[in-house]
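**Protein of interest**
===
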Amino acid sequence: MDRWWLAAAGAWVLCSCAADRTEGSSAPQLVVHTVGIEASAPATRTELASDGYNVQWSPGDRIGVYVESGGTFTTVNAPMTFSGTEAASSGTFYGELTLADGASSYTLYAYYPYDPSQSSSDATGIAFTLPPQQTQRAAGDSTHLGDSDFLVAAAVSSTDASFPALSFSHAFAVVELDLTASGTMAGKSLASITLYATDVATVSSSGALSDLDIMAGSFTFDLTASTGNNTGSYAGGSAQIGYCGLSLNEQPVLGSDPVVAYLTINPADYSLGGGDIYFVVTTADGYTSTFSLPGIAIAAGQMKVVTQELSSGTAPQPTVSLSSSETANCYIASVASQSYSFDATVAGNGVITPGLQSAVQRYEGRTLSATLSDGSVARLLWQSKPNLIEPGSVTYADGQISFTLTGRPTELGGNAVIALYPDATSDEAIWSWHIWITDSSNEELLAAAETYVMAPAYEQAYGAGSAVMMDRNLGAIYKEDGPYARSFRAPLFQWGRKDPFPWGQIVFDENNVPLTFLSTWSPVQSSGSPGSYEGYTGNTWYATAHPETFIATTNATSYDWYYGAGAGNGASYRNDELWGNPLGYNAGQTTTKTLFDPCPPGWVVPHPYVFTAFTTTGSSAAMSSGDVNVSGSFLQGWNFLYDGTNTTFYPGVGFRYDEYAVFSFLSAGYYWSSSPAVSDLAGAAYFGLTATNVYIAATDPRGFGLPVRCMRE
């Protein structure tokens, strides 16, 4: 304390002298002072003390300082350096501060660690990035916490610039993981740990996410806030970073003695929506061991200690072929850390119906082929969540595309699109595939399929027990209702196209960098004539070459992304063959899986009458009529009785608007069928639900992006 007071007194002498020199001046004189300020560190920073929890400043630590002189910031992001020669929980920081001589008051704001690139001029937008990937030198070593921690001091004020001691608080929290091992995992070297949270968010009508369970990322802090100035505002918008990874430079051997690791995470309630947290432990020889715990609520400055014995793990497995029995445009990957491959020489399921071939020849002047022969490069176009697919794992060789999932638990779900290109510079894909990451394999989904009992007339027309449906939306995480239902975060499709478009506003590239979708879209040409495709967006050639491009619609094409013959209805104007049910509005007509069907092997887009199971009349109905077969109340969707006893949940998903591709999130849900509309220029039949109504075989423009619930072939 004596040391600080001497420094402060010296500074005040300088200030007094400067004031004498500027007497009579109309503007206050700015004077630079060399000042020492005492600061105490909070728990668990920058170097853990011997008890593991108290903080100590380290020699050379620097804080960033702002000073407001009489309402004007005269010191902006000045560094002050810890003067101690060894670690200590308190001490003096020295630096130069610019003050306005004779100001009525002085208020000082400070943060740690000092960053010379801060752009805030008034201490209200101090930026800090908590890295989602952290590195620890060795077991039990905590020095890396200084690289990922951020401290904020309570503001201090003075009338004479003799500032009192600063007291810092944590912005983030620490999870300590104490690992022991037995059985398979004993004796293995620990390489990395990744902590995952269950996705939770509040969704606005525009699809923007808030109240996110963000573990890491970029934040800003308002040091001038009267309370909670150590609470960061997430700067990543709707980019949900729900994981934090740690690698170890010196890889310790797992055994009976605890191996201690530390991860710095954003404080949050990770238990919302009944969410769990998951730890994925990876060893140097490629074994993974995953365990989950009920979600935790952790506050800034807290350290949560998790103790776990690892007794079993999964060894690296041979690559699994997803197309060994059947090819398709969508493949399901359900095992974390697994390598997969699929046949990239066949487009879709390889089936081109005569009607589809004829329609494409008529409207595009080309002959469809299911053979893909010119590929050389595969790329990950987008993934719905970060850290789904291992960076650099997407490859093409010998007619096969291969990729590897990260250790992220597949019950957290996700979607991705991989495309094949003729060379590394091409921006026109030869073909593309939807990779659906969920908690069940395709075989398990087939076994869990639900048999709908349609209205009597349709049971007779299609055959009793013929409406066998998937238990979740195509691309959904799993079957779930509730206020935080992850089930509605499933991709959307333009009618007749095979490629998904992401739900919401954000996707991630192969390096986990967030991107705003819709970053690219092309309006369908409103002029032209049947029999050509080059230079036009509204055809299967363009849609195939640009799977990431949402094709916006116009009135001149009846709001169809496919130009066809311009505005008009029926086979003379529209390509009704894309999803294999051109006369699907007639009872008894079912779907033939085609080259452009978006469903996985063994599944197709359903005909419109499977949904007659949900009303007693087989027709659209108001909820108030009592004719709708539901159980429970509306909660972002309905639990429909599909056979008189069992229920299936259909969430309100939202849609992408056909003219602008903008995503809108609603409590309503509209689901495509494989059928065109019978006589409506709008184009295709859908099943719809709201809180008050259910719609059977209603129609919507084909350019809308809507979800799909697949039916067994």
